[in-house]
Amino acid sequence: MKKKLLLVVAMVMLVFAVCGCGKKEDVNTSSDKIKIVTTIFPEYDWVREILGDKADNAELTLLLDSGVDLHSYQPTTDDIVKISDCDIFIYVGGESDGWVEDVLKTANNKDMVAINLLDVLGDNVKEEELVEGMEGEEEEEEEGPEYDEHVWLSLKNAVILCNEIEKAIEKVDADNASTYQANVKAYTDSLSQLDDQYKSAVDDASTKCILFGDRFPFRYMTEDYGLTYYAAFIGCSAETEASFETIRFLSNKVDELNLKSVMTIEGSDQKIAQSIVDNTTDKNQSILTINSMQSVTMKDVEDGAQYLSIMEDNLEVLKEALK
Question: How confident is the model at residue 97, as a pLDDT?
């Protein structure tokens, strides 16, 4: 993480040293459009929904558009320039975004509205949790608490965050405030309705526990609906190999709780999940994939990917897992 930060700092210094050599121009002279930069797909899609038919008023950028996840991302010089010149910058704000502070300090647009999702959520943010049977993380040195960055996987959080984003857009484009207010109201109503469907599904389920043979980024979802969980790794883990002890523990839990499935996130090779299944008594559990939206590409967006529809699909996966 420190190496990553040092690299970004060096890039920031280089970018603005080069920019400083040329003639300074007003950042808004090339376009009257609102410039909005987002780091991850959920932020990007929320902005699209809030803009609605005013989308032509904005120049919207998704930085993580190639499938790389938040924990591995390093901004390019082009990314840094886009952030520096934008009107609104939306980012998660956890450890993975440690590079942001230095970029914002040197931004060209001093009137930029920067939205840190973790700051917006305040006390709703959860610390990373190491549950029984989970592989521990090797730390280089003792640091402060690490917070779970996957806040977008709570529909309740999404409502709060969308309302905050709408306020920022309204601040920059007050002439269309009523449109943005109506759009965010309609969209957050849809999010809340889906939240109710999740609650009903969990209330009606015979099982209240899910088990992941993978990283576990769904802490906020389980907190929202009172589910318990077991997993091979914490949500931000870079580990891909689980120990035999972890496999055995999770296999025993599948047997003990009579679970019918083992879960993974998108992009998994399912090897750990399959090893867990192979070490159970029945060896016939299904492997289910649930989408954490950490590797959505611009092609996915062009093909119609939407936060709400992905969360609807996730509900169907969760229902299957809780049978």
Answer: 94
